[in-house]
């Protein structure tokens, strides 16, 4: 056989993709018989559920964003003047008094951007929302495809900025989790179910953040000679182990954030009171 | 222990073809390629199929089994749903030659477009010193048997013939990653920036990391996580990261 | 006149495995326009199957290793039948060939100090095999392939054409080596003029005119039923050489690798690498006994452990212990397994147990033997970290091949070169593991170099292809389409494989081999009538019908030579002549094409040739006691030479020999 490929202009006439001229003429766009659509449907359902819930909470949740000593992760840090007062958490009011919308919107941009540009979530929504591709070896519906070579998707390359921002955000949420060891009156030495919820959440958030592909690159992946940087090599090895679970951590931390907020909401709205360990 | 199975095999050439049914005996422990060989030996002597080692080491017998890109020699019959028809077609991303054989010339052309390893100046044969931890990453990529299933499944070219000139495909982007991570490759000294050319000449940006290449890899290479994403991050280093830029300016960072 | 696609090159290399690619690279680097012809896709050659490593005495792991020790091991492994000069060149040049691969991008496993790691292997005194996990062959072929590509990139920069000076003809098959026209029997101009063959894809014929042809087509395993070899191993180069007038030597020596998979049936024969044993795997029979201790032959008695404890200690401390007998040369282990199974102590599927699961932690097994772990998991549903493998002998390698000049790799036909498995002599009666990859590189390079020089010399007087030969070759190739209702080639192939396996297998008997010759002659007549359906475009039935000619020719060589050699040595075991005979060491059996094959008779004539005597200084590397086991009385070096009765091996050699030339 020779090593030429067909000229691309010949491709456009009869059909496109798997029906391009020269390829085996098979009518079906794919021949998969397993339930290839199932993971996509589940992914879409999971993401939509979270989007719906978090939108509702971000816009209308201010009054139930704090149930002493627990502060909802959607509302921390506070960067506007209209937050709940007296939380003891980070309250910088950088935006001053003109901001009339929910303060959560300012904060959520960062985790949202981090997750939106995350290599795992990209795969998830390209597949489930954009069908690009719907599943492996299943033809996609689009006539053209340029991937991440142009605006706006070329912006996915800024993932690592969001990673840089994600670190202080995770730091602040860690502080919030520490504050959860106070009782509702501000005295230290308390622990309730909420404390545990916040602890689990912050561990998962750190794990997700540290398992990020950009993080893996920055701590060591960018090096050429691991042998000359033993400490960074070890860090890279740890991050690589976490990174192998990036998908699981992405889902686990997504749900834990939502559940933490839900827990605060339920306490603040008086649905039940926090079981106290000590 | 043996049973009769129905195989539906695509037969034809570039001018047309169809799925043809065969009733064929299947024995205990057999793989799809064994059954295709039986069809060849008993019913269709001219059934065209490529194969060599029959042990998953050469990457010749790539095809699509029930719509999924796979090596025929590594697909055990016992892993397919019992009693159901087994459909086998040639890879659907490359021009078909005959029956299950496709023209994979696209891949050989792309292989030529990736600049080869550049040996370091002044290091003689026998004087190469590399640490195991420094070669591990590239060694993973060198496990590749060039079955081209990743190239076949990648929607960038599978679903868009017009992207073929601009996109090297996962196999050859991984080759760039392999060379970029090679501890002694002297590309940079000779003025070649593999990270930049990956993006500017070999179509790294087309990859939307949907991981089908990793899913089909018979060698289990983590193409997306270990080659493509790190390569994207390396390209970002070059083009978009202000901290890296600053670090380079003040002399803090040396790869 | 036949329609053919025509090309002209300086050097044509038939075969794109390790030897072929190495030869082509060398010829191209000497400025010759080079064509590489491969039967399958570029980079798929059988070399990818090699697992263990490349033997080269770099001394990275044990600095007592040097070329002399490697030479000694090679001669011992081949039972002194090797062509000493080939063994010498091989041992001397192997390290350079390995190091050179690194400059082309190969990434071997490393030692702590960053050098190429080397592992133990059967028959090698020191850890000697450069390796990459258990996929060394893949690394080798990929490196050479990428080197070819880099040469093409160089041509592209200079000439704007990737294929200006080196081109790969993928999925092309050669059916004849062409020679100059017979002009009145002038032997002076009886030389190679090119090759004829067909393209698999289109079925069209092609001719490449070239003064020099390098055969690098590998082996003949597909003539046997249970084999580790791929479909390409149909003895094409062996047959092409015979048909072109060259001789084949040592064809009776066929290596059965001791450990091939035995179950499931569809993968029967697929290789289980020797590194499993090198890394601690042990062989047991169905009684759970490590039976290899019962099978240490006298010539190896001093070198191998006598108790399991000593054998086990060797893995940790090789300086003070002798190695376990699982690491005996392949022929010994294969025969031992064969005997155990015959004695009724085999496994349910007719093999023996090879166990590494009780010897190494699971994690370590996965790290050291990844592709074996993968292979058993995927193909046999066996987890080798938890349970033993079942293994048995499989046809693996043919020591015999084209008789060549050791230094130039040239056959007796001017312009015809051979390297790699298709060449004979290097490995004597049995090849050591790891010596084939180094053989490919050392003699591949030599063949390419001398082919280039030969082509250079022929420049003013290029051979002319003979149209009559082209027409005859085309007619021969089209014959299967003419045979209306002819026999199915697949059926014939299966009969051939069964006959060879049953009658000329590991243990051979006179009557059975006579029967084999009888059957082969009948099969040859039937194969001439084999017919195929369909058309010429990618038609595997047709391809097989054409390959049958080659398999039948080489099978006859094997059977005829095996019948003639009345002794047991290396890869040739006669039940009726179980001992090794020093007299036979001096004899090489050379096959050539019979003048006119008569129906019912053979197509091959056999000739006895003297094995050239070993150079004195090389003999001096051995102790007199050892030489006595192999040499006849009058071959023994003179008493004045003052050979010590025993060599204290490397310790004594080291001082004087470390500075030796490479």
From TrEMBL, chain A:
Statement: the UniProt record of this protein carries the keyword Transmembrane: yes
Region (Disordered): 1-23
Bilayer-spanning residue ranges: 36-56, 101-121, 161-182, 188-208, 249-268
Entry superkingdom: Bacteria
Keywords for this protein: Membrane, Transmembrane, Transmembrane helix
Protein name, entry field: Uncharacterized protein
TrEMBL record, chain B:
Keyword Metal-binding: yes
UniProt cross-references to Pfam families, sorted A to Z: Fer2_3 (PF13085), Fer4_8 (PF13183)
GO molecular function per UniProt: 2 iron, 2 sulfur cluster binding; 4 iron, 4 sulfur cluster binding; electron transfer activity; metal ion binding; oxidoreductase activity
Cofactor(s) listed in the protein's UniProt record: [3Fe-4S] cluster; [4Fe-4S] cluster; [2Fe-2S] cluster
Keywords per UniProt: 2Fe-2S, 4Fe-4S, Iron, Iron-sulfur, Metal-binding, Oxidoreductase
PROSITE patterns the record matches: 2FE2S_FER_1 (PS00197), 2FE2S_FER_2 (PS51085)
Domain 2Fe-2S ferredoxin-type, first and last residues per copy: 3-92
Lineage: Bacteria, Bacillati, Actinomycetota, Actinomycetes, Kitasatosporales
Alphabetical list of PANTHER family matching this protein: SUCCINATE DEHYDROGENASE [UBIQUINONE] IRON-SULFUR SUBUNIT, MITOCHONDRIAL, SUCCINATE DEHYDROGENASE IRON-SULFUR PROTEIN
Name this polypeptide is given: Succinate dehydrogenase / fumarate reductase iron-sulfur subunit
UniProt-listed GO biological process terms: respiratory electron transport chain; tricarboxylic acid cycle
Pathways per UniProt: Carbohydrate metabolism; tricarboxylic acid cycle
GO cellular component assignments: plasma membrane
Family membership noted in the UniProt record: Belongs to the succinate dehydrogenase/fumarate reductase iron-sulfur protein family.
From TrEMBL, chain C:
One Pfam family named in its UniProt record: Succ_DH_flav_C
Disordered: annotated segments: 631-662
Chain ranges of the Fumarate reductase/succinate dehydrogenase flavoprotein-like C-terminal domain: 493-590
Transmembrane segments: none
Entry-linked InterPro entries: FAD-dep_OxRdtase_2_FAD-bd (IPR003953), FAD/NAD-bd_sf (IPR036188), Fum_R/Succ_DH_flav-like_C_sf (IPR037099), Fum_Rdtase/Succ_DH_flav-like_C (IPR015939), SdhA/FrdA/AprA (IPR030664), Succ_DH/fumarate_Rdtase_cat_sf (IPR027477)
Gene3D superfamilies with a match to the protein in the record: FAD/NAD(P)-binding domain, Fumarate reductase/succinate dehydrogenase flavoprotein-like, C-terminal domain, Succinate dehydrogenase/fumarate reductase flavoprotein, catalytic domain
Gene Ontology molecular-function annotations: steroid dehydrogenase activity, acting on the CH-CH group of donors
Official protein name in the record: Succinate dehydrogenase / fumarate reductase flavoprotein subunit
């Amino acid at each position: 056989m020779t090593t030429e490929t067909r000229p691309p202009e010949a491709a456009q006439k009869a059909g496109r993709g798997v029906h391009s001229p020269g390829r085996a003429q098979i009518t079906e766009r794919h021949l998969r018989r397993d339930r290839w659509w199932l993971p996509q449907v589940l992914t879409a359902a999971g993401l939509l559920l979270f989007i719906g819930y978090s939108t509702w909470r971000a816009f209308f949740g201010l009054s139930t964003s704090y149930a002493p000593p627990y502060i909802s992760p959607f509302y921390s840090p506070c960067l506007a003047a209209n937050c709940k007062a007296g939380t003891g958490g980070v309250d910088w009011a950088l935006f001053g008094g003109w901001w009339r919308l929910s303060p959560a919107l300012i904060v959520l941009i960062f985790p949202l951007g981090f997750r939106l540009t995350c290599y795992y979530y990209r795969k998830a929504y390209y597949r489930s929302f954009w069908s690009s591709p719907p599943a492996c070896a299943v033809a996609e519906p689009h006539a053209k495809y340029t991937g991440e070579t142009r605006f706006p998707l070329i912006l996915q390359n800024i993932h690592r900025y969001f990673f840089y921002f994600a670190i202080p955000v995770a730091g602040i949420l860690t502080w919030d989790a520490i504050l959860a060891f106070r009782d509702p009156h501000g005295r230290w030495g308390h622990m309730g179910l909420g404390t545990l919820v916040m602890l689990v959440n912050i561990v998962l958030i750190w794990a997700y953040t540290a398992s990020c592909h950009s993080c893996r690159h920055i701590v060591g992946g960018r090096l050429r000679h691991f042998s000359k940087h033993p400490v960074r090599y070890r860090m890279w090895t740890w991050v690589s182990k976490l990174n192998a679970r990036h998908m699981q951590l992405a889902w686990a931390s997504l749900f834990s954030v939502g559940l933490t907020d839900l827990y605060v909401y339920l306490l603040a709205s008086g649905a039940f009171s926090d079981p106290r360990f000590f | 222990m043996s049973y009769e199975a129905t195989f539906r095999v695509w037969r034809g050439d570039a001018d047309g073809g169809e799925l043809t049914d065969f009733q064929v005996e299947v024995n205990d422990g057999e793989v799809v390629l064994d059954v295709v060989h039986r069809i060849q030996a008993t019913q269709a002597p001219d059934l065209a199929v490529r194969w060599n080692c029959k042990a998953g080491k050469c990457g010749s017998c790539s095809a699509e089994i029930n719509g999924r890109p796979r090596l025929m020699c590594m697909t055990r019959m016992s892993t397919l749903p019992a009693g159901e028809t087994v459909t086998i077609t040639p890879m659907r991303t490359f021009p078909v030659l005959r029956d299950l054989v496709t023209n994979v010339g696209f891949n050989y052309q792309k292989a030529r477009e990736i600049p080869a390893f550049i040996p370091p100046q002044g290091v003689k044969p026998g004087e190469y010193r590399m640490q195991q931890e420094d070669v591990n990453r590239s060694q993973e990529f060198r496990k590749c048997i060039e079955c081209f299933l990743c190239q076949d499944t990648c929607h960038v070219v599978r679903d868009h013939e017009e992207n073929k000139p601009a996109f090297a495909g996962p196999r050859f982007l991984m080759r760039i990653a392999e060379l970029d991570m090679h501890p002694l490759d002297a590309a940079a000294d000779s003025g070649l920036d593999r990270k930049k050319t990956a993006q500017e000449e070999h179509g790294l940006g087309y990859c939307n990391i949907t991981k089908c290449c990793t899913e089909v890899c018979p060698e289990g290479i983590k193409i997306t996580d270990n080659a493509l994403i790190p390569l994207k991050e390396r390209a970002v280093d070059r083009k978009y990261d202000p901290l890296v830029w600053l670090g380079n300016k003040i002399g803090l960072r040396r790869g | 006149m036949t329609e053919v696609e025509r090309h002209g090159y300086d050097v044509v290399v038939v075969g794109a495995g390790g030897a072929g690619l190495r030869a082509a690279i060398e010829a191209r680097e000497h400025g010759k326009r080079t064509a590489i012809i491969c039967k399958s896709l570029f980079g798929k050659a059988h070399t990818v199957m090699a697992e263990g490593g490349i033997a080269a005495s770099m001394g990275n792991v044990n600095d007592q290793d040097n070329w002399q020790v490697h030479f000694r091991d090679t001669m011992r492994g081949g039972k002194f039948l090797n062509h000493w000069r080939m063994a010498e060149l091989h041992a001397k040049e192997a390290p350079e060939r390995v190091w050179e691969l690194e400059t082309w991008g190969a990434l071997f496993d490393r030692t702590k100090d960053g050098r190429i790691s080397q592992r133990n292997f059967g028959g090698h005194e020191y850890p000697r095999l450069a390796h990459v996990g258990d996929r060394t062959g893949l690394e080798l072929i990929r490196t050479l392939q990428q080197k070819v590509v880099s040469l093409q990139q160089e041509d592209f920069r200079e000439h704007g054409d990737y294929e200006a000076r080196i081109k790969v003809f993928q999925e092309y098959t050669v059916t004849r080596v062409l020679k100059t026209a017979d002009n009145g029997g002038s032997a002076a101009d009886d030389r190679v003029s090119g090759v004829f063959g067909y393209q698999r894809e289109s079925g069209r014929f092609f001719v490449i005119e070239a003064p020099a042809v390098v055969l690098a087509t590998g082996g003949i395993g597909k003539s046997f039923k249970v084999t580790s070899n791929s479909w390409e191993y149909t003895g094409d180069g062996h047959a092409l050489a015979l048909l072109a007038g060259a001789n084949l030597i040592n064809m009776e020596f066929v290596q059965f690798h001791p450990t091939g998979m035995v179950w499931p049936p569809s993968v029967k024969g697929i290789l289980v690498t020797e590194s499993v044993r090198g890394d601690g795997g042990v062989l047991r029979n169905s009684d759970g006994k490590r039976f290899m201790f019962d099978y240490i032959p006298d010539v190896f008695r001093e070198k191998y452990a006598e108790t399991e404890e000593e054998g086990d200690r060797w893995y940790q401390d090789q300086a003070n212990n002798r190695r376990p007998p699982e690491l005996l040369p392949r022929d010994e282990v294969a025969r031992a397994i064969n005997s155990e199974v015959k004695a009724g102590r085999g496994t349910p599927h007719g093999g023996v147990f090879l166990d590494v699961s009780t010897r190494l932690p699971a994690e370590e097994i996965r790290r050291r033997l990844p592709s074996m772990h993968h292979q058993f998991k995927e193909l046999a549903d066996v987890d080798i970290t938890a349970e033993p493998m079942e293994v048995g002998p499989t046809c693996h390698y043919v020591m015999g091949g084209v008789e060549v000049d050791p230094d130039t790799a040239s056959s007796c036909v001017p312009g015809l070169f051979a390297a790699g498995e298709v060449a004979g002599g290097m490995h004597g009666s049995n090849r050591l593991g790891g010596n084939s990859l180094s053989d490919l590189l050392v003699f591949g390079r030599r063949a390419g170099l001398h082919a280039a020089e030969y082509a250079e010399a022929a420049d003013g007087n290029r051979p002319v292809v003979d149209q009559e030969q082209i027409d005859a070759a085309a007619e021969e190739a089209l014959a299967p389409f003419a045979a209306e209702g002819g026999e199915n080639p697949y059926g014939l192939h299966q009969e051939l494989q069964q006959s060879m396996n049953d009658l000329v297998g590991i243990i051979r008997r006179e009557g059975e081999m006579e029967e084999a010759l009888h059957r082969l002659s009948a099969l040859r007549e039937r194969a001439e009538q084999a017919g195929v359906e369909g058309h010429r475009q990618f038609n595997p039935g047709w391809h097989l019908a054409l390959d049958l000619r080659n398999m039948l020719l080489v099978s006859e060589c094997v059977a005829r030579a095996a019948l003639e050699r009345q002794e047991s040595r290396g890869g040739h075991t006669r039940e009726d002549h179980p001992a090794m005979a020093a007299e036979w060491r001096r004899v090489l059996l050379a096959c050539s094409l019979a003048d006119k094959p008569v129906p019912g008779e053979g197509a091959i004539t056999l000739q006895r040739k003297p094995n050239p005597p070993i150079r004195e200084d090389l003999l001096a590397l051995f102790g007199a006691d050892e030489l006595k086991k192999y040499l006849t009385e009058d071959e023994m070096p003179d008493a004045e030479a003052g050979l010590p009765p025993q060599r204290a091996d490397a310790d004594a050699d080291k001082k004087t020999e470390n500075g030796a030339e490479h």
